[in-house]
Amino acid sequence: MTSYTIPGMHVREHIVSVPLDWSTPDGPDRINVFAREVVDPMRKDEDLPCLLYLQGGPGGRAPRPVEPSGWIGTALKTYRVILLDQRGTGRSTPISARWMESFESAEAGADYLACFRADSIIADAEHLRTTVFGGVKWSTLGQSYGGFLTLTYLSKAPEALTACYVTGGLASIDPDAAEVYRRTYPRVEAKNREFYRRYPHNVDRVAAIADRLAADDVRLPDGDRLTVRRFQSLGIAFGMKPGYERMHWLIDEAFDGDALSDTFLSQVMGESSYRAEPLFAALQESIYGSGEGATAWAAEAERALRPEFAEDARPLLFTGEMMYPWMFEEIRGLRPFRAAVEVLAARPRWSELYDLERLAANDVPVAAAVYYDDMYVDSGLQLDTARRVGNVQAWVTNEYEHDGLSTERVFNRLAELVHSVGGGVRAG
Q1: pTM of the prediction?
Q2: Phi, psi angles (nearest 5°) of residue 51
Q3: Angle separating helix axes 177-198 and 202-215, nearest 10 degrees
Q4: Is the dihedral of CA 240, 242, 244, 249 positive or negative?
Q5: Distance separating alpha carbons of residues 74 and 152, to the nearest angstrom
Q6: Which mean pLDDT values do the consecutive 10-residue runs of the chain (428 residues) have?
Q7: Are the C-beta atoms of residues 50 and 83 closer than 8 Å to each other?
Q8: Three-class SS of the chain
Q9: What are the backbone dihedrals phi and psi of residue 203, each rounded to the nearest 5 degrees, phi first?
Q10: What is the C-alpha end-to-end distance of the chain, expressed in Å?
Q11: Angle at which helices 106-113 and 338-346 cross, to 10°
């Protein structure tokens, strides 16, 4: 076990070997799962409760903290914080484009990717808890997709949990990708309208960029062609603060004379290549697969019904957290995933992620921040889940975007809600 101290935090590193496929735990294929245990250096030898952080995503690695600030700084006053790199990310046997090229068939690649869903992640967490942390109960903090994971945890192993905190991530417990995107597009359109209301001069600038991309073969630094629809996909930033401003400044430097600038093209490549987090794109719709029914490229199907998002519509509307089949052709870092993702989109049956009876009877205290204007996770679906899962307190607010956890207040508020019903540990 490697251990060291960085400013304000003592770190211990843990690596465990787990089955690739938890449905056949004795199978030959294994992967590694990595976690960092972070604690106040002055309390590193104390018997402190553990807080497992469940990162957003899918396909997101745990934070790499550089100082004890934000929610981590608050949590370190009372907890050991466990930062888990979910399987396939960071130092947990990462999945790369190069690795996906090694599969002999699309079906083999799809079967491999299907082992990186919520139920497997929770099985990994349980293995870590029982083998590294002596089987002690712990609390969880789930951001975004981490909230989806929380509901799976409460379905699979509630006996492991003392309390759960969720921010922007109470998934629908009746997963339906088509319904998710029916609700998502109107919220994304509203975010676009707000962007143009704040920066009305960008209507013409965005149109000029789109017209140039439609007329010319514009190449990004890595050689990919920048199409209008790839440019539109940058709207994924509108759900975070300060997403509008980041887009504004990107557009501000778009042109160098009559040509699109190197600065603009370099930034667009960085924001849309998915090289650092390919699983985010590859598994985006698969997180809604549970039981019977294919996800069937739901975002693409819904977009076809909404001409306001067309590439030649004006004002041009940006899209949000949607993945489309063309992305796995146009984006070189995603091309090796293409065949496997097509198989996943057509898969007719998935492992069940949620136990509705167990969730209804849940007695683990859960406090959830529901961001009313959340672009990514529909607040209506979140509140429906809050009503149907036992012992959930929902804090509904429009003060924050999806990344509200970046402020100390959100975690403090959730900790107080759990503490008010006798659960968890009061935040510092």
Answers
A1: 0.97
A2: -120, 115
A3: 120
A4: negative
A5: 26
A6: 95 98 96 98 97 96 96 97 98 96 97 98 98 98 98 98 98 97 98 98 98 98 98 98 97 97 98 96 98 98 98 98 98 98 98 98 98 97 98 97 94 96 68
A7: no
A8: CCEEEECCEEEEEEEEEEECCCCCCCCCCEEEEEEEEEECHHHCCCCCCEEEEECCCCCCCCCCCCCCCHHHHHHCCCCEEEEEECCCCCCCCCCCHHHHCCCCCHHHHHHHHHHHCHHHHHHHHHHHHHHCCCCCCEEEEEECHHHHHHHHHHHHCHHHEEEEEEECCCCCCCCCHHHHHHHHHHHHHHHHHHHHHHCCCHHHHHHHHHHHHHHCCCECCCCCECCHHHHHHHHHHHHCCCHHHHHHHHHHCCEECCEECHHHHHHHHHHHCCCCCHHHHHCCCHHHCCEECCCCCHHHHHHCCCHHHCCCCCCCCCCCCCCCCCHHHHCCCCHHHHHHHHHHHHCCEECCCCCHHHHHCCCCCEEEEEECCCCCCCHHHHHHHHHHCCCEEEEEECCCCCCHHHCHHHHHHHHHHHHHCCCCCCCC
A9: -60, -50
A10: 28
A11: 70
> What are the structure tokens assigned to 130, written together?
């029982």
Tokens 């079967």, residue located: 111
